[in-house]
Amino acid sequence: MISPAQIRMARAALGISVRELAERSQVADSTIHRFESNKGGMQTGTLDRIQAALENDGIVFLAADATGGPGVRLKA
């Protein structure tokens, strides 16, 4: 499952706002704000829509491993 920090990093990498992500994922911008601020959880289906929208725009989500925490990168 992707983290709030990964969503913020992904948006920064793409140069998009919460509003733009909300439009692309069909999720309310208030829901994204709340999740990114660690002020609430998110249903799995909603998080899946956000992840799919970001992946469609070229984001690859990286899991935490022995060398560091979770992150993101752009597809080559």
UniProtKB/TrEMBL annotation:
A Pfam family recorded for this sequence: HTH_3
GO MF terms, alphabetically ordered: DNA binding
InterPro entries, sorted: Cro/C1-type_HTH, Lambda_DNA-bd_dom_sf
Domain HTH cro/C1-type: 7-61
Protein name: XRE family transcriptional regulator
Annotated organism of origin: Caulobacter vibrioides (Caulobacter crescentus)
